[in-house]
Amino acid sequence: MLSWGRHEYGKTFDNWPRTEAGETEEPVFLAHCGPLDMEAQMLQSMLESYGIPSLRCLPGDGAFGELILGVSGSGADIFVPRTMLDKARELMKGEPEDDGLQEGI
């Protein structure tokens, strides 16, 4: 039986932080990504590599456009757990840490 990618949603649900009451934490808006590039996928991959789960929502008729054309004409909205929002915003700034590798160049 085909799962049509449902295992990915289960993985996100399993990794999503929980409140003290055991409920899933509220997702909050992080960023809107444009329709014609891989910005949303790249952002989600970066967040995942730092242990931050994320959701990609296609506003308006975006899901239909993605189904028919392969791209969402209205782009994608990325959501993260409320307690991880500040860390996600910090990561999006993309300022490299000084790791000493550039010394002497």
Quick structural overview:
This protein is an alpha+beta fold.
> Unreliable runs, pLDDT <50, ≥5 residues?
1-6
Distance between the termini: 56 Å
**Which sequence of SSEs, written as H and E, runs from N to C?**
HEHEHEH
Number of strands: 3
> Given the structure, what is the number of helices?
4
Strand order of the largest sheet: 1-3-2
Radius of gyration: 16 Å
- How would you characterize the largest beta sheet? 3 strands, antiparallel
Relative helix content? 25-40%
Structural class, by secondary structure, is alpha+beta
Proportion of strand residues: 15-25%
Describe this entry's structure for a reader.
- The chain is an alpha+beta fold and 105 residues long.
- It has helices at 6-15, 39-49, 62-69, 85-93, and strands at 27-33, 55-57, 76-81.
- Strands 1-3-2 form a 3-stranded antiparallel sheet, covered by helices on one side.
- Mean pLDDT is 79; it is low at 1-6.
Features:
105 residues; alpha+beta; 36% helix; flat; disordered N terminus
Topology:
Blueprint: H1 6-15, E1 27-33, H2 39-49, E2 55-57, H3 62-69, E3 76-81, H4 85-93
Antiparallel strand pairs: 1-3, 2-3
